[in-house]
Structures are given as C-alpha cells and as structure tokens.
Recover the amino acids of this structure.
C-alpha cells in the first residue's frame, strides 16, 4: 500500500521557522494536504492543493512541493502552533485515494 | 456556518453491533462527500471510507472493506458508520469530515466533526 513519510518530531524556538516534510512517490502528480491537530481536538485543514491556505488560517502557514516531497512551513512560530501535523495525499492508481502520513509532533521550545 | 456534530461516546462489548452518526448543517449535505477517519490511542489517522449522500456512492479503504458499513440519509442530513460485530481492536476515536474530490482523483477534508470515542470492554 502507498505510504507517506514524515519525521516523528520537529522542535523550534518561538519566532523561528519550522519546516515539516512529507515524502511520497506519487507527489509529482498528486496534491499534498496538511492538517493540524491539537490534543483532544479534531484535525484542522491548514494547507490544501500543495500551497493553498483555507480562509481563517494565519499567513505564517505555507506549503510547497519539490519532486516527491511536500513541505509545510510555519514562519514566526508561536506557542499556539505546538501540535501534531499530518500530511495527506493519495496514490496514482486509485486504490488508495486517501493516505495520511504518520504525523509530526511540533514542539515549541 | 458548516458544522458536523457526531454522536456521543460508546462503550461496547466485543461481538456487539454499533452505529454512530454525524449530522451536517450549514451547507448542502447531499452534494458533498462525507468521510470517516479512525484514530487509535496515541496513533495517527487512518482513512476508512467516503460516501456521496445524494446517490450513496461509497468507497472504502482496502483496510476497512467488509468490516464497516457507511451510509447517509439526506432527509436528516446525517451520515452513519456501523459495525455488525465489534472487535477489541476497534477501540478508537472516529471522526467524520466533509470531503472534496480533487482533480487528481483523490479526496481531502475541510471540516471535521468533534469525534466519537468507541471503547471496547469485555
């Protein structure tokens, strides 16, 4: 089955820039999506179609793609950004139209 | 305002059946996909399946095909996830979410319910 690979954890100091990567063989063709999940809460969509930001999501959240890797970048990290972040996409064969990465715990030091 | 409100927590025994619900409001329920996602304690997200309420077109993840049934009722704007025989391994939080089918033949989810915790205990 298709897999997306994320680092288990990323740490950053307040005000710095955090980058979370997600690798998958289908990314040159498929879009990447990012969700933020805080403890005890439902996930929130923060990036869709690789680079687009839903209304209400702060401008410090941005997305990019290069080859088989999509990246979520949080500029000027704030304490409230501490959360788990999941990437999501799908494969090219229509067998797995929804696949989540394993998640990355962002710690704000 | 788009809202998805899920039914309350459940405690069941292995072998029992269960049906949990997800009521949508604030948008055209019939013409948007609804997906179900499982999250086991301390673990990540797993996609279970999606349904298009208007025609009940349903797709399941290979991992959950045959284990659960997804349905929807447009008259009550409610989607359902059901099991005929629960297993201990079904203990998890279950989320519903409004889905979009993108131009690359995949889905993503923009609004999520608050989650329903299902606990199996013998």
């Amino acid at each position: 089955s298709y897999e997306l690979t994320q680092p288990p954890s990323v740490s950053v100091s307040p005000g710095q820039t955090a980058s979370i990567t997600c690798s998958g063989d289908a990314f040159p063709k498929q879009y990447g999506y990012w969700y933020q999940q805080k403890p005890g809460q439902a996930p929130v969509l923060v990036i869709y179609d690789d680079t687009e930001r839903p209304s209400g999501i702060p401008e410090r959240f941005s997305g990019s793609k290069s080859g088989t890797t999509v990246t979520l970048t949080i500029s000027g990290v704030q304490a409230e950004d501490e959360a788990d972040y999941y990437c999501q996409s799908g494969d090219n064969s229509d067998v797995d139209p929804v696949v989540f990465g394993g998640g990355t715990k962002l710690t704000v030091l | 305002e788009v809202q998805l409100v899920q039914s309350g927590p459940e405690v069941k025994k292995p072998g029992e059946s269960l049906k949990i619900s997800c009521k949508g409001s604030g948008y055209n329920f019939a013409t948007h996909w609804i997906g179900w996602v499982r999250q086991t304690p301390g673990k990540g997200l797993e996609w279970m399946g999606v349904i298009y309420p208007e025609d009940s077109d349903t797709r399941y993840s290979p991992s959950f095909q045959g284990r659960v049934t997804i349905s929807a009722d447009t008259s009550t704007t409610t989607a359902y996830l059901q099991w005929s025989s629960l297993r201990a391994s079904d203990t998890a939080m279950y989320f519903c979410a409004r889905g979009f089918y993108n131009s690359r033949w995949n889905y993503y989810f923009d609004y999520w319910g608050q989650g329903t915790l299902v606990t199996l205990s013998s």
Remarks:
- Chain B has no helices and eleven strands.
- The radius of gyration of chain B is 14 Å.
- The interface with chain A takes residues 35, 37, 44-47, 50, 59, 61-63, 95, 97, 102, 104-115 of chain B (CB under 8 Å).
- The mean pLDDT of chain B is 95.
